[in-house]
Specification:
2 domains; Rossmann fold; 11 helices; seven-stranded mixed sheet; alpha/beta; two-stranded antiparallel ribbon; disordered C terminus; elongated
C-alpha cells in the first residue's frame, strides 16, 4: 500500500537516500521506480509521475541502499541493444564490453563459427550472433547456473537454434577436445587482482569465480592464451577483454603464445580488448 507519496515524491526521497552510496542515485531511483510500476522510464515521466508510489518501491530502494546492483534487483540488463536476464550467478554485462562485439564484427563480418569462453549470461556470444545471421556459436562456462541463464537468454532472443551452450573449463585437460576451429573467439576471462579495491556492489554481489585471477589478475590469461592458436581457423581472430592497465602484460603473454595483438579502447578511452591473431612474424601493434 502507498504511504501517500506520489511517484515523483518517492523518487526525490530515494535519490537523497541513495546519494551517499552511489554517484548514480537519481538514475537508480528512476530505473527502480519504472520497474516497480512495470513501465518504461519514458512512460513513467510522461504519464505516471503523479500516481501513488507502488509499495514494492521501498523494498527495491532498501536493496539498492545495501549496494545490490540495479541489474540484479530488476533481473535484467541491456547490452548491445538487447535485453539479458541476469542473476547473481553471472557478471552483469557492461557497456564497455560492447567494444569486443563491435571489433569482432568489423574484423570478421563473414564469420560462421564463434566460440565464447566463459559465456556467463551469453551477452557477448548472443550479441554477435544477432548481427551475424550466417553464424553459429558455442559458449562454454564452468558454472551450471550461468549456463542456465545463458540458455534462457538464447531462447528469449530467438537464437537458441544457433547458440550451443556447454559446460567447460579451460583450466582442465581436454576441455576443448572435438571443438575444431573458429573464425571468432570471444573471451572475458577473470582478470581482477585478488586485493583490488572494488565497489561493494561488485565484491559483495557478483560471482567471485568470474572476477578474480590471482595476485596480478593474469592467472587465466597465462592458462588460456597458449591454447588459442589451436582453436583459431586460418584468418581467425580472438577478442579478449582486459583490465585498463593490462594491455602491456597481456600483449606480452600473447606474443609468447605466438599471437599478435591489436588493442581496442572502450568509449571512455580506456584499453578494453585485445584482438589476437596467429603471428606471421610481423611486429606487434598496440595503438
Amino acid at each position: 500500500m502507498s504511504d501517500g507519496r506520489t511517484v515523483a515524491d518517492a523518487i526525490r526521497a530515494a535519490t537523497l537516500e541513495l546519494g551517499q552510496g552511489t554517484d548514480t542515485a537519481r538514475l537508480d531511483a528512476e530505473l527502480l521506480m519504472a520497474e516497480a510500476l512495470d513501465c518504461t522510464r519514458s512512460e513513467m515521466f510522461l504519464r505516471r509521475m503523479h500516481d501513488p508510489a507502488p509499495a514494492d518501491y521501498a523494498r527495491f530502494i532498501a536493496r539498492r541502499a545495501a549496494h545490490e546492483p540495479v541489474a540484479y534487483i530488476r533481473g535484467y540488463q541491456e547490452f548491445f541493444g538487447l535485453g539479458f536476464r541476469v542473476t547473481p550467478d553471472v557478471l552483469i554485462p557492461r557497456g564497455d564490453s560492447e567494444v569486443l562485439v563491435e571489433a569482432a564484427l568489423a574484423a570478421r563480418p563473414d564469420a560462421r563459427r564463434v566460440l565464447d569462453l566463459g559465456t556467463g549470461s551469453g551477452a557477448l556470444l548472443l550479441a554477435l550472433l544477432s548481427e551475424l545471421p550466417q553464424a553459429a556459436g558455442l559458449g562454454i562456462d564452468r558454472s551450471v547456473a550461468a549456463l542456465s541463464v545463458a540458455t534462457g537468454n538464447a531462447r528469449a532472443l530467438g537464437l537458441g537454434a544457433r547458440a550451443q551452450l556447454e559446460l567447460g573449463d579451460w583450466t582442465q585437460p581436454g576441455w576443448s577436445a572435438g571443438f575444431g576451429t573458429f573464425d571468432v573467439i570471444l573471451a572475458n576471462p577473470p582478470y581482477v587482482e585478488e586485493a583490488a579495491d572494488l565497489a561493494p556492489s561488485v565484491r559483495r554481489f557478483e560471482p567471485a569465480q568470474a572476477l578474480f585471477a590471482g595476485p596480478d589478475g593474469l592467472d587465466d590469461y597465462r592458462i588460456l592464451l597458449p591454447q588459442l592458436p589451436a582453436l583459431l581457423a586460418p584468418a581467425g581472430i580472438a577478442m579478449v577483454e582486459i583490465g585498463s592497465t593490462q594491455a602491456e602484460p597481456v600483449t606480452a603473454l600473447a606474443a609468447q603464445a605466438g599471437l599478435d595483438a591489436t588493442m581496442h579502447r572502450d568509449l571512455g578511452g580506456r584499453p578494453r580488448a585485445l584482438e589476437l591473431k596467429i603471428s606471421l612474424g610481423k611486429p606487434l601493434t598496440n595503438p
